[in-house]
Amino acid sequence: MSLQELGKTQENAEQETAGSIISEELNISAPGKLRIIKRNGKVVPFEEDKIKVAVTKAFLANESGNAAASERIHKKVEAITADVQKVFIRRMPSGGTLHIEEIQDQVELQLMRNEEYVVARKYILYREERAFERTKGIEKKSKIEVPAISVTKKDGSQVPLDIDRLASVVNHACEGLEDVSADSILEESIKNLYDGVSVSNMKAALIMSARTKVEIEPNYSFVTARILLDELRSEALSFLNIAEESSHPEMKDHYPLAFKAYIEKGIELEMLDPNLKTFDLDKLGNAIEHDRDYQFTYLGLQTLYDRYFIHYQDIRYELPQIFFMRVAMGLSVEEDNKEDRAIEFYRLLSSFDYMSSTPTLFNSGTLRPQLSSCYLTTVPDDLDGIFGAMKDNALLSKWAGGLGNDWSPVRALGSYIKGTNGKSQGVVPFLKVANDTAVAVNQGGKRKGAMCAYLETWHLDIEEFLDLRKNTGDDRRRTHDMNTANWVPDLFMKRVELDADWTLFSPGETPDLHDLTGLDFEKRYEEYEAQAAEGKLDQHKTIPAKDLWRKMLTMLFETGHPWITFKDSCNLRSPQQHVGVIHSSNLCTEITLNTSQEEIAVCNLGSVNLPQHMKDGALDHKKVKKTITTALRMLDNV
């Protein structure tokens, strides 16, 4: 028998199904059974007869066909098969799963140990031949299945599908990554193409084919990012008249050219600060490190593509490293040695060791360089002040600022209005307007507006304030898109512990409470309680402190709001006690700065990526020091 006949015989043996489907499943799941993973991924029961067939054919390939009935060969086959089986039983006495290749490896080994060297050699050559034929078969199959379709370009013209170009993109994307398959991505992509498919849909098919594999192997996230990067390069470079497309190695030469063209085009389109032209653009362009494009995962690059990269009529003409350089230039434009500072900032950002805040990434180097993260304001108790605060919110949100508003000074529902001889509708209707303002004025079209309203726990409208995020009740008195926070004094918690009463006031009658903290607050609050008991105050309400605390916790559990923040703790630890009282925190409750009706507090944020600063399982303090030194310089320049 020839080796080719042997190959067909063994391949058929591998593909046979043992018994019915039901009995096979029972055998596979039975404890103590050996199971085999075939090359197509199917799991079947271990069958020693198939080893006998394969070994027998190996001997027949080496000897004449008349040896089939030889007692000598029969005994050798039995012995070798038994030896192979013993190895696996000894290795997995309780049963387990083997790959078909493991069995064939063991057959080779046992042939050698039984001194059947010629047969073993022929068997090894046969396996190599079959492996080569399978590989060629797959390649041949993939080539045959490429459909003859046309691709529609942006100008409406059609060209044949360039399968070599697609293969090149995918192969470059998979380069240097383990456990990823370019062929599987390409094959899956081709299945989703059709005659006349647009260029954008063709690229989207590539991205989606790679993206669906991320949950199987995390490295596909890098593959997908690189495919998206190829699309971004084509989009940006063609817009800047540099090239129609570019591979990653070619970007080493294209980046400096694209950078200069980008600065010119951005200033021409009135999107970039003309002062950027005062930099030595050649020096900055040569400092760009194109290999850092390959650090992105898919989610990271897609987020930059959707929200951060500067675009004109939905065409992104800002590449990742140019994006980081633009941010660095905006932060260093006032520096004495601005090129060196820009390069220093660029290298820190592009290494992912440190990242500036979203407003800085959005606006640095543009005509509207609003780079700060959060703004804290106090809303005064008059219409001009209230709607002035609304205007401030709108303008700050327009340029990506997060908002923390202190609403405690605004008088409560039913309070007397001297100017009109009427009564106030309280703070809630104004909060509804503030909520809708944040929705209407998003952050530069890149993300939703975000704000948080703070109210002190003694405010007469506090009970309605607690209900603002509920999904039931009058929707005109609900703020579904705005965060809320309760500004709690220590005295309230003392009353809860003592199971005592708590009195609510309107700030129109108790205007100084909001500016008092600690013991001064407690003293003045108790004086107002005494006045209320004597009937000297028109608006007040006394409730058990525990009832209010219980409702606060109930709403926190039900809606996640209002957040509980502690007034006296924040003021006690404030390093700025000499310049005023802290009336609220910011949008994210991590910053506490003093505010007044005349002064807006601002916070500037940045993030140090600590995992990037680990060395041999410990924090690299030298690198952390270097990073923070540069990061603080960047924050100072905001």
List keywords for this structure.
638 residues, alpha/beta, Anaerobic Ribonucleotide-triphosphate Reductase Large Chain, 3 domains, six-stranded mixed beta sheet, three-stranded mixed beta sheet, 13% strand, elongated, disordered N terminus, ATP-cone_dom, ATP-binding
Can you walk through the features of this model?
50% of the residues lie in helices and 13% in strands. It has 638 residues and is of the alpha/beta class. The chain folds into three domains: 3-140, no CATH class; 162-363, no CATH class; 374-603, Anaerobic Ribonucleotide-triphosphate Reductase Large Chain (Alpha-Beta Barrel), CATH 3.20.70. The strands form eight sheets. It has a six-stranded mixed sheet. Strand 10 (374-378), helix 17 and strand 11 form a beta-alpha-beta unit. Helix 3 (48-62) crosses helix 6, helix 7 packs across helix 8 and helix 7 (163-174) packs across helix 10. It is elongated and about 120 Å long. The termini are far apart.
Concise overview:
This protein is of the alpha/beta class and 638 residues long.
